[in-house]
Structure formats: C-alpha cells, structure tokens
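Much of what follows relies on a compact textual record of a protein's fold. With that in mind, consider the following protein and its fold in token form.
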Amino acid sequence: MIASCGNDPENVAGTYTINLTNGPNACMFANWEEGSTVTGTTIAVTQDGESVTVNVEGLAGAYLDVVVGGNQFVGTVDGSHIDARLTGRAGTEGSCAYTFIVDLEGDLDGDVMEGTLTWFQQTNGITECGIRNSCQNTQAFNGTRPPGSGD
C-alpha cells in the first residue's frame, strides 16, 4: 500500500457497480481463468476524512468471505486515489505460514472508478512456501456510482 501524499481527499463514498477482468494466473489459484470477466459486482464505499472502507456485497462478497476470509477492504483516500487492503485468513502448509491479502488501488474521475486488485499470499518467507513467496494475480476493474452521489 502506498502512503498518503497529503492531498485533500475527494468524496469517494457511494455504492458502485463494478466489472472485473482477470489477469494472468501467476499464483495458480483454482478457478482463475485469465481474461474472464465478472460484471455487476456491488461495492459500498464509506469514508471518514482520509479513511475509507470498501465492502464487497452480494454473491461476490460471500465468495470473498469463503475463499479469502473477509469481504471488507480498509485503507485511505489521497485526493481521488483509494488505497485499501483486505487481510484474509491465515493458513499453513507444512512449515509454510501464509495470509491471504487483496490490495485495492483505485482512482475516481467524477462518478467513475478504475483500478486494480492485487491478490497474493504474505508468507513467512521459507523455501517450502514456493510460489506463494512471490506470485501475484491481478484483476482490472472499473465501475460507476449514481451521478451526484459524490456531491
């Protein structure tokens, strides 16, 4: 996550309908197909000054909760840029300890948000973790909130 540069935060709050497109499956996640799209996902963004919370709603939120261990990103707003993280559940495989992480970076232009989700596993760094030590999967997203909801 990028530290705040001190720009006054814009109002990014609102309910957005977003579409996602999967990038390459570098982490070899099950059921991840490069180029696959998901449309009509609803996210609710709440804001308190520079602090932001992004809740993924509906079936996508339930899916995140089951697969990652949560559906809420927490982070900051710097100008029109959102930087937030979903910290999921911890797991182990042999001596490898890891935590699922999804980072959200998004930029708002009027009522349109575009950005990237970066999926990875934070590990204890041992060789036994293999690909988990360095892989990242990404999803590009874009979406809108109703006009005027950011006023």
User: Anything to note?
Assistant: The chain has a mean pLDDT of 93. The longest helix spans residues 58-67. DSSP finds one helix and eight strands in the chain.
